[in-house]
Amino acid sequence: MYTGQTRLVSDLASLFPQSNVGNLESIAAEQVSNKTSKQIVFLVSHAEPENLTKSVDDLKSGLTHINGITVVGRNNTYFSEIGKIHQPAIGALANYKDYRALKDGKSRELVERSLMSLYAPASNVNSSLIARDPLGLYQEYLNDLASGSAATEADYRTIVAEIDENLSVDDVKNTSLRVIDNLVQNIQNEHSDLKIEYGGAPYYSQKIAEISKSEAERITMLAVCGIIILLILVFRSIKPVFGALLITSVGVLVGASATVLFFGEIHLIAVAFGASLVGVVVDYAIHFYTARRLTETSKITANRIRAGLLYGTGTSLVGFLALAFSGVNVLMQIAVYSAFGLIGAATCVLYLLPHLTGISKTAGLTTKIPEFLKFHRNAMNRIGYPVVALFCLLMTGAIVLDYLDPIDDVRSLRVTTPEFSKFEAAIRDHSDASSARMMLVKGDTIEQILQREEILQEFLWKYIQNDTISDLWRISKIIPSVKFQTEVSDLSTTILKSHEAKPLMAVIPQQDNEIEFLVADAQIISSLPSAISVLSVFKGGSNPRGHMVILQGVDPDFDTAFLMDQFPWVSAVDAAQKYTENLKKFRIEATYSLLGGMAFLTLFFMWKKGVGTGLQIFTVPMFAALSSLVLAAAIGININFFAIMASFLVLALGADYSLFQFAADEDDKDPAYLAVTYSAMSTILVFGLLAFSKIPVLQTMGSVVVLGVIMAWLFSPISDVKPEGENL
Q1: Where are the domains of the chain?
Q2: Is residue 91 left, alpha or beta, with left meaning phi > 0 and alpha meaning psi from -120 to 50?
Q3: Residues 372-384: pLDDT tens digits?
Q4: pTM of the model
């Protein structure tokens, strides 16, 4: 089943949920994903054939003794299982090459081959078998099945091991993989010049987990250190630092606890992104301490900023909770983590911080604004929000019409490391597994599907002969259709009655003409070895079903699209394409959700504050969210589903900046502007770290948020003018 898709499946299995319903193509792609996500592939090479064979045997033997590991391949057990099924139908089974010889009337060749096998020194043909199969078709049939499913260079051998699905993640990571590493190392120590390249989804998952954990630790440490330095420079006091650390700690702990409660675990990518929550909730601490006055208690300060803080928290929740409806597990975890973190942080500012006497007596920040910041604020105040709103409409049109050239290809999301690249190069250079293509043959009954598999084989025979394709691996290769078996039996009988067959018939015992054709049903299919039975795809009951067919050793220039035009019952099984289509669907849905959310919040504030004031409040966050995508596309950042999700966060943060300034009393305008400035600095610091992440999902989201926050801060002064006498 290994088809070179392990890398892709590993990176994305944790991001996209498995669908409970879907078409046969989607179900087939998930079956491939499930199968390959448990496989470890070994490429073994040595210049001396004897050492290569010995090393391969040692590796196979060692793997079979590891708990939860099974070596996938055609071993004695495999053929024993197949033999039990085949036994009644011997005499009606032939590989495709012999079937073509029968049809082409090449009786002499088949008879001579059978006679040679009878008298060969190592012949294992007994009288019972030859009585049932005089032409020796079954023996060649077995040899064909034993030849392997993936071609490998002569000096390379491929071994595929599979991890038991009942093993826990910890057992795989801490036990199985470690034992495999030790086994490989020991075998390499025993044989000089031996090379073993190995990898697969379990190793990819382990490496990605390590990267995610490292990213979370690095981002958290740098973010906290950077914010501490920023707060000390801004407030010139250690007390606000303790308050900010308290708020961020509460936010992170509440968010993490809620995620565990809802999901039972926290995905490491969610942990890495959750570390960036520090850059969001610290805004609340900055807003609180910037608004502090020497002549008032901290409780009065909290009451004074309550309206703006609650409005800001509410709009931020809208942004984060949008992720909860994304259909992607890791984003749903980020949504819960962030939403509850925000609630915890806001509650801490309003109800806990004012009661901590050591912190509540801290004097506020000086409100003197540097000249260049004053120039910025005054310049933006002169820009009318209708002009910015017009640009919002233009950018909306560009996004809806896909002028930003979105890239939904899931391969752009793959994590890249030197180890991954090295293994991929080895697979590509020394095995045809990476060039395999998977097709789905659909039908109403199993017999019909088997016949259609054989029609496909017939059609592709010329491509197999000219080496465009090396072979087709399919269920009908193991269990032929009744039609095929009948034809083989009739053609064999005709040849045995021919003049050329007389020498053969003279030396065989009485022929056994009783053949019980194999009639494939669900029970027979399920009794096949797992490597074969997994090719069967069905939705249950009487729903349409299909069988996967693997085209092996496919030439890179061979386009399988024409097969679907030729045969309407054939379709492609492509995990990458499936995930890409899902990603595009999610992106489009997220885009319209973003635009719908903007419209809803704008109408809400227009209803609460009047048309002009409502537009003034929400024009800036809309502009920030939309321009973040336009700017990202302009500098070469992929616009995909995750970029759209990041723009939700920009919308939420931009709303904070607008509402903090809009809600401020007239004599608090300067502190509010400073709070927004320092909040933007802390957010850029944290999400800037994400922008340099090794994980493309985090890299994209971090980059878009940084661009959006810059635009939100740049245009936020547009929102700080409030009609006389109006209060939130």
Answers
A1: 76-147+483-519, 237-403+578-719
A2: left
A3: 777 887 788 777 7
A4: 0.77
